[in-house]
Amino acid sequence: MREVVIVEAVRTPVGKRNGGLAGVHPADLSALVLQALVERTGIDPVIIDDVVWGCVSQVGDQSSNIGRYSVLAAGWPDSVPGTTVNRACGSSQQALDFAVHAVMSGQQDIVVAGGVEVMSRVPLGSARTSGQPYGPKALARYEGFSFNQGISAEKIAQKWGLSRTRLDEFSALSHERAAAALDRGAFDAQIVPVVTEHGTVSVDEGVRRGTTAEKLAGLKTAFAEDGVIHAGNSSQISDGAAALLVTTPDTARELGLTPLVRYRAGVVAGADPVLMLTGPIPATDRVLRKAGVALQDVGVFEVNEAFASVPLAWLAETGADPERLNPLGGAIALGHPLGGSGAVLLTRMIHHMRDNGLRFGLQTMCEGGGTANATLLELAV
């Protein structure tokens, strides 16, 4: 098997619902990060073997293979193909895995992985406007559970004894860390500004400065009257896209490119679909064992903040250093553009590793239906 490296990683700002990116078509938003890849690397896109693109709500503006239409919107040659992947919130992280598998096996040499979601234009749940995706047998197997992620987040909080105060404190910290990252320019090099008819969007829009647990305590719970999950300790509905260029060290050298990170290992794990969002726990253990890397040797963990109970349960089970968990803030503050989130988190983590000389970074993403991806990257030096 060949070694695989990532030589560039870029993203758009993450826009808030009905914010600065809401008027941009998903294919056009995707095109911006695709164009940025070739501008930053200087490669001719004709040599790209494939584009693997994550997207969750594949209806309306995001239907009919958004991956292929993103390539066309970018102005790349007709010969460059594209495909679209849906593994729920982990779609673009899975896109990276598929790209890596193609390059690692020798079937392809240069692949772009990434994803997009413009939830302002294609709202969450748009694909379920008719029909029942779970089917009677799956519902019967789990005693009619509705497979509602918010209820699952409540169940996780109950199982791990996570109080509302604890969840709200974590959420406030997410905003605090994200604001600090913005202020020191931690995201500047990775972001592709988006020019719209209303102006240029160059900064993540979701951060609420001055958020405190005390302020969050006043919000009404969303899924249970006596529950702990509410809008303030949940991920934001967002718009965004990101892309990564995947190849081998030899091909990078031939093209005059310097690898950012090596892909050390990637896994996908299944877990209880009723708790649903606990998959990152076994996925983390599995990816570390596969790579032969100890937990304490990982310098940064990106655990998607779908709900505050998810990374906190992960933290309790793994015993990881909380200072290394989502050090730049997470989806509670920065947003969660579903199919683009895996690539957005990967981009943030890669640049954080480079900026701080961290050898290993681990990203994991909970997903609807009770699965999770985990990816371990190593700094290329």
TrEMBL record:
Residues covered by the Thiolase C-terminal domain: 258-378
SUPFAM superfamilies in alphabetical order: Thiolase-like
GO molecular function annotations of the record: acyltransferase activity
Alphabetical keyword list: Acyltransferase, Transferase
Keyword Acyltransferase: yes
PROSITE patterns, A to Z: THIOLASE_2 (PS00737)
Organism superkingdom: Bacteria
EC annotation from Swiss-Prot or TrEMBL: 2.3.1.-
Thiolase N-terminal domain span: 4-248
Similarity comment: family membership: Belongs to the thiolase-like superfamily. Thiolase family.
Protein name from the UniProt record: Thiolase family protein
Organism: Rhodococcus chondri
Lineage: Bacteria, Bacillati, Actinomycetota, Actinomycetes, Mycobacteriales
